[in-house]
Input
Amino acid sequence: MDYRRTYLRDLMQAQPGGQVSAYGWVKTRRDSKGVSFVALNDGSCMADFQVVVDAGTFDGADWDAVTTGACVRFDGELVASPGAGQAVELKATGMELYGGADASTYPLQKKGATMEFLREIAHLRVRGNTFGAVNRVRNRASYAVHRFFQERGFQWINTPIITASDCEGAGAMFAVTTLLEAPEPGQEAKFKLASQDPADDFFGKPAYLTVSGQLNVETLAMGLTNVYTFGPTFRAENSHSTRHLAEFWMIEPEMAFCDLEGDMNLAEEFVREVIKDVMDHCEADLAFFNQRIDKELLTTLNHVVNSPFERMTYTEAIAALEKSGQTWQFPVAWGSDLQSEHERWLTEVHVGRPVILTDYPKEIKAFYMRANEDGKTVRAMDVLVPRIGELIGGSQREERYDVLEQRIREAGLDPEPYWWYMDLRKYGSAPHSGFGLGFERLIMYLTGMQNIRDVIPFHRTPGQAAF
Output
């Protein structure tokens, strides 16, 4: 066997003629008089590949085991297909069964299954149409992210997963320690501390899983100019909402010599380009989502790609919300954080296209965002899109040493763990800006999927760390 085998997506586009091999998992098998039809899929595309087997070609236990879920290779001639929806099919003359699947217990049958049930079999759900399509979109979007930044001279860097500082100041972090002694097999399932002194721990101080690579990525921007990170981040929030995960992936570009206006320009261009790339290369998958998940999906995506983003300040947005005449679940007032219902109204009703909000109150934003001269707001920006609200959050960073130290203290944090971050302001400080985008939020937007647990292969949420 050779890794350079032909994918089924390529076989479907080939001209009839010649001997080929088709590898994949059986979606369905239908036996008719004198002939059997096997629908095969290898995950390379949405469509199934049809294999035609004349009666008597195969017999015995291996042929009997070719049922839904089985993994098999068929050899034969690629011929023109008389059936609708396919140009070619395989007339099988040879077969090798790699692994059967008990038809009575295999959980992915032709009948539909709920998303909740499919999460319980996350190790198998990728073989179905929905999650095959989700992962193909996820793959293409990942490629588009790297291509977007690489073509613009950004350098990809890797930031630490283990950190000693809290980027957001929110405290929802997973601790990393070697001081916990796990119970021996058969003992009572309790953990105990070997020591309560952080100096005895592996790193000699408290350490955590990172909530963001942003502080670290700034250090690279202060020497490489334009950089980005694309990696895993972690939040220990006890949230069971459809929009939160404990482990997710973040895209965080950072640009030296860039102000808030440049940051907004990059964010708008980024959203448009990645969506357009996926639309150009995942047409069949998006058509599936448009038909089965969200019938307005393609309309929404086309609208985002082809519409200029509206720009307004937080203060202007609050005024519009207060005058809307709407009854809000979360009351609107200057100084309060906007909720999804507010963000969706702004994009879907008030403006009718994506919106970039700027200049938020400093009390509801992180300490690293540059303070405005009014003493009340910071140079922050959020990109809001129809249907889900906030997609991107970013800012111009505070490059003034004294102001940054004051903002850290105002946030209730100790400046000492941030000494290296403050050094960037002490030695050759420069204006710089960046933003963060949760990759799974982007995949939700691209697919119309309603629960963030369904756009990542294995979700990590409170009480859930299976697989």
